[in-house]
Amino acid sequence: MKLLSFRRPDGTPSFGRVDGDRVVDLARDGGPTSLRAALAAGMAFDGTGPVHALADVVLLPVIPDPAKILCVGHNYETHRQETGRAKVEHPSIFTRFADTLVADGQPIIRPRVSGDLDYEAELAIVIGRGGRAISEVDALDHVAGYACFNDASVRDWQWHTTQFAPGKNFPGTGAFGPYLVTPDEAGDLSDVRVVSRLNGTVMQDQPVRDMIFPVARIIAYVSAFTPLSPGDVIATGTPGGVGAKRQPPVWMQPGDRIEIDIGRIGTLTNFIAHEETLA
Fold this sequence. Notes:
The chain is mainly beta. It folds into 2 domains: about 1-60, SH3 type barrels; about 70-279, Alpha-Beta Complex (Fumarylacetoacetate hydrolase, domain 2). The chain has 6 helices and 19 strands. Strands 1, 2, 3, 4, 5, 6, 7, 8, 11, 12, 14 and 17 form a 12-stranded mixed sheet that branches. Strands 9-19-18-15-16 form a 5-stranded mixed sheet. A two-stranded antiparallel ribbon has the order 10-13. It is globular, with a radius of gyration of 18 Å. Keywords: Hydrolase, Metal-binding.
């Protein structure tokens, strides 16, 4: 099953189930009005409702309003090596803010204060059942589904200090979509490849199985220090090949097209826009 958040043709926000080239609108009066609320309510998502053509709705980030966005740094050996980071026993975790998110088809915004905008193709986890101190054995039972994520990074601001937060939280830099794929449809992701393409050129390409800390381990670790809630998002890290570590560096420029392709999880496509042109 594929689920998504969107704006109806009249502009009101909703959520629904993808059915070919249509979306079944599942928001109800008196019921959940967002995908996050529907996950919290334990909704089955197999109901009926008004049908819209996908072409007639405007996509929103998969979860437009997550309470938490947690990101894993240096979670592929190729990326750890290209950044020169030491091997660690625990995942490196940092946070994003919900107001940085943009949907499939929306522009990723290069800020006016920097030209060092980099791509990061990532598999995102969406939590379906919350919990604290979740065991690795039970962790996958807490997953509502998976989505594509582009953890676009403003590198010079990321490197001002050892803290990542500034470079990871400029508005319009966290692309998330196009939809959530439930675990039954996603299946075994081990051989699914995380790929980024910049203007059609492959920049990153590595299978999910190459994560240093796999999905279950990440959920167990994160939930040990913070409660997870339905709709929380965890971005699981990017493979090697980022623009900052190329010679010369490759930065995303206004007008560029960046795609994050994770096989049956979908393809997330965004163009780059300069902040000043959107003011």
